[in-house]
Amino acid sequence: MSNNLLAGKVGIISGALDEKSIAWKVALKAHAEGARFVLTNAPLAMRMGEINKLSEQCEAPIIPADATSMEDLEKLFTGAQEHLGGKLDFVLHSIGMSTNIRKGKHYGELNYEWFLKTLDVSALSFHKMMAVAEKQDALNEWGSVVALSYIAAQRVFPDYTDMSQAKAVLESIARNYGYRLGKQKRVRVNTISQSPTKTTAGTGVGGFDAFYDYADKMSPLGNAPAEACADYCISLFSDLTRYVTMQNLMHDGGFSSTGISEDIVETITKLNS
Ligand SMILES: NC(=O)c1ccc[n+]([C@@H]2O[C@H](COP(=O)([O-])OP(=O)(O)OC[C@H]3O[C@@H](n4cnc5c(N)ncnc54)[C@H](O)[C@@H]3O)[C@@H](O)[C@H]2O)c1
Q1: Residues in the active site (predicted)?
Q2: How many other C-beta atoms can be found within 10 angstroms of the C-beta atom of residue 43?
Q3: Which terminus of the chain, N or C, has less C-beta within 10 A?
Q4: Which of 107, 150, 214, 243 is an active site residue?
Q5: Residue at 4 is within a domain
């Protein structure tokens, strides 16, 4: 059901790799709500070609950009404004990657070059996007910038290794750039801390199925699906949330406020008996 929440709004959506991607669902919903936008992803991801389907469905052009490259990001923001005919109302940062996780390195044996790459791709890229937007004065007043985070920024999830630090930096960047863009342009900046979700990035984390099930059992509402995360993004891009900024917003079915659930008690009791 569409409510035209984003009618007349224009923006950039990064990170749609395939149909499972959270950004993919955000793009479909943003289109349904009347937004026009440009899609972007790393040139390497483009080769899979999946994003072309989404581009057709949403009538959204694709501008490839490695989110760690200032040069690419400059071209992305210039190109998006040219195509969309003016400044932007919303930007979605939906980007994460850790070679340490991909290669199964445990926390004590992290490769530091990869660690720096994790921070660059998954966190500094968020700063870079906003720095480019600021330099180009690319955002409209009352615009909205959103990035996706995970609760490993606050709590320990051993297999999430260096991504935990990346998410902590990402959330800090949202607060600090949120202050700056709020003062300059009344633009809001937030992170959404999403439940474990079965996507390429998500399922790449060791023990994913176990912590997916654990989070599901711990959350009174169950894990928040990707579609619901997309709905939350749309609400943050809309004019209904104009004074929400510099926040890390939990979108986790209640996981982060639950100490222990009846489901977990039951499971452990059964295991012990
Ligand atoms: N899946 C989960 O369990 C979960 C939970 C909480 C938060 N998140 C976050 O949601 C965001 C989206 O991930 P997803 O779960 O939809 O997985 P996904 O694998 O579909 O998306 C990750 C995207 O990052 C892109 N990317 C990687 N390196 C890049 C670079 N250098 N430049 C530009 N793009 C690059 C990939 O191409 C891909 O499209 C990530 O920030 C992720 O950490 C995911």
Answers
A1: 150 (proton acceptor), 160 (proton acceptor)
A2: 11
A3: N
A4: 150
A5: no
